Amino acid sequence: xxxxxxxxxxxxxxxxxxxxxxxxxxxxxxxxxxxxxxxxxxxxxxxxxxxxxxxxxxxxxxxxxxxxxxxxxxxxxxxxxxxxxxxxxxxxxxxxxxxxxxxxxxxxxxxxxxxxxxxxxxxxxxxxxxxxxxxxxxxxxxxxxxxxxxxxxxxxxxxxxxxxxxxxxxxxxxxxxxxxxxxxxxxxxxxxxxxxxxxxxxxxxxxxxxxxxxxxxxxxxxxxxxxxxxxxxxxxxxxxxxxxxxxxxxxxxxxxxxxxxxxxxxxxxxxxxxxxxxxxxxxxxxxxxxxxxxxxxxxxxxxxxxxxxxxxxxxxxxxxxxxxxxxxxxxxxxxxxxxxxxxxxxxxxxxxxxxxxxxxxxxxxxxxxxxxxxxxxxxxxxxxxxxxxxxxxxxxxxxxxxxxxxxxxxxxxxxxxxxxxxxxxxxxxxxxxxxxxxxxxxxxxxxxxxxxxxxxxxxxxxxxxxxxxxxxxxxxxxxxxxxxxxxxxxxxxxxxxxxxxxxxxxxxxxxxxxxxxxxxxxxxx
Length: 525
Known about the structure:
Serine Threonine Protein Phosphatase 5, Tetratricopeptide repeat; mainly alpha; 2 domains
């Protein structure tokens, strides 16, 4: 098929073929999930619920399915969250400061997995093998739905705004962008994590897809549906409430770019937009009920009144810091944002609202004084749900680039994808600090010499085990050999310092500590 052909049959065949490719990609990811769990890289199982956030999300889904309540006492007693979740004085129930949307979406998957456990003669208690398997596969389903909605949005918007692009090129480019966002951003990493980020991505892309369909409509049912998808988006990630501004910004720019339309601010417009907001707020009732049951109030900020502090002093950190910065850890996003700014120049009515709400979300995270880096996080995970917006920026760059520049741009995209993938491998295999700024070696060199970094870390883990067993001389010997072969690292010097101290070799321990401090002093922004 040539790009120039535009028959209706060709369009429909290729369009739906792209959907089939996304479905096949989702099946492949599901298989990859099961294989990775079987291999247990770095001796870590994938299909497990641990930590604090994951326990909170899972606990709410489990409690609603099995106990029909919001009391997570028995769930916390079984799963043991790593951070304490305090008892709320008004109700006597343990807190749950996480949005409820992801838990609600996971209930059918948890129920199906429990039923399979029953058929397989496993304990049908929601904690057995297939319950966890289907719970994780729910993330793959959310990913697939989100990618389909993203592909449709990119295709329909570019068909409207860029009619000069050949049809087949449009479809395959939109598909390529959709699939590339998965490995090159936090979306890929958090597909394998039982937290709300992928569900939030699905909810946002679903809202965007519905918005594109209803934006010029005055049918109440259409705007009611948009309100429903918006409420799901908010219940997955609360900061997504900022995206409610998007339709109104779009309408306002219609006035600016096209002059005052007869319909704007007339009764049909007011009715549909009011219905949109009312439905979006009303359908948040599951969240309000959970807050009432746990905190004793229908409307509350579970994170505390001082959780956000404006102005957003850490806005630049969220984007550029080596401690999980969005551009630093997933540089393809920077390329995409450049495309967004270009889109603001070429198609401001569409791009200015999108870019505005995107950076408002960045500002919210930058306003968290104690946790703008989101603690143990691969990249800026809090912005995973917004990836459809940067994806549109990448589409604009690719469609407007000359043939020669397209080749260069695809090379940049491929390089960013490889960089992001290696970063995810480093993080997953504990080759990076989870909550600290990075050195230049950790940011660049260890990606080039990944095998060397991995072998060094294996020796550090062995030395740590020997240290705990009291075999101090063996621990020191392993670390010294590892340093000679693979160079030093913060992890190696830290364990070597502890081993020297345990042996009473204070002078050597102090020299090693100073070396460690000198390394840490070279950490980047």
